[in-house]
Amino acid sequence: MQNSSIMVEFNEVNMEIFKKVSARYKELGLDVTPVHSRIIMFLYDSDRLVCQKDIERFVSCNKSTMSSILNTMEKKDLIIRVDSSEDSRMKIIKLTDKSKKIADVLRNDKEKIDELLNLNISEEEYAEFNRILNKIRKNIERI
Length: 143
Prior knowledge:
This protein has helices at about 5-25, 35-45, 50-60, 65-75, 95-115, 125-140, and strands at about 80-85, 90-95. The chain is mainly alpha-helical. A hairpin with a 7-residue loop joins strand 1 and strand 2. The longest helix has 22 residues, at about 5-25.
């Protein structure tokens, strides 16, 4: 068995990507974090109305953390919350014009980042990587 921890390795790679992507967004003049960008793209690509619970499930975080993230995004004029016509207790999360423009930049940059991350990785290696990731995902269910 290996001496390294899969959990630690994933966390370290994730943090490296987070730092690089955050710096990249700053270079592009975008005042968003990688989490903000995921939420913006989720909303941008959604073909239905989205509430906070939907975003919580997508990002895999709890209600209080998501409330904090959405509050920050609202202060930065990235989202607005509007009352649902179906349920007065629910707020629908919508993108602002500012974040719709950001979404176009994010989509183009995501493609560039993916290209950079895939450099020197063959199709066979990528297929093997995905095969192993799927095994790890199944093993996560056992925790």
